[in-house]
């Protein structure tokens, strides 16, 4: 279980904002992952060796002074088995802003990283990934992001009269930058979240920031990985304050500011 939770802490998007990344905690079981599969990209030729000095996982990315290659479909350093390069298309609409990892993706929705891209991203961040884990990791990642968007949409429904088509503009991983709410809860004995994301939604021209805290939940034999997702608009303006009050006072809409429990199977099924 510890290994599985560690995997969640570096989900795609944790190294910065969406301008240099591809994007964990309430989600339905992985079997209900509502995503479509895009066409598979071609695997790099097996007979095309790349010298260690020229390998994309060695070269530094000047944008963040980290090893590049995390967004490539090139086999990683020391990779023993080939990994799929097909990418699933999400149900999350993308705004006009197009980061590099979404260019030529062939969709107006955000497109998730392939298993190969995830493997490379882990290597770039200094991890020692296992090829056999990638299918489960990508499935969890995709399902959690789908659920996160569904929680965001619960808030956005309050503004459907002025914007019927909100889109995700960008996201930013902030795993060690705890939100004020998370810090306050920790004073009452709750554990701090293991990760945090900030998602910026394009509400028909207005940028609205959402804070997502991810908490470790209680696992069981059926679902060895369990975690909570707390999604709410950041208190950046008075409208967000009003939205929080409305959400928590309206029993029909439910409390979107409450953490939602998620259990997933480590097998990814």
Quick take:
It is built from five helices and ten strands; from the N terminus they run H-E-E-E-E-E-H-H-E-H-E-E-E-H-E.
Keywords:
23% helix; 21% strand; five-stranded antiparallel beta sheet; disordered N terminus; alpha+beta; three-stranded antiparallel beta sheet; 10 strands; 269 residues; single chain
From the N-terminal CA to the C-terminal CA, the straight-line distance is 16 Å
Enumerate how many helices there are, as a single number: 5
Number of strands: 10
What does the largest sheet look like?
Answer: 5 strands, antiparallel
User: Which stretches are low in confidence, meaning pLDDT under 50 for 5 or more residues running?
Assistant: 1-6, 9-53, 64-69, 253-269
Shape: globular
Descriptive notes:
- By secondary structure, this protein is α+β, with helices and mostly antiparallel strands.
- Helices cover 23% and strands 21% of the residues.
- It contains five helices and ten strands; from the N terminus they run αβββββααβαβββαβ.
- The strands form three sheets. A five-stranded antiparallel β-sheet has the order 6-7-8-9-10. A three-stranded antiparallel β-sheet has the order 1-4-5, with helices on one face.
- β2 (60-61) and β3 (66-67) form a beta hairpin.
- The longest helix is centred in the middle third of the chain and has 23 residues, at 134-156.
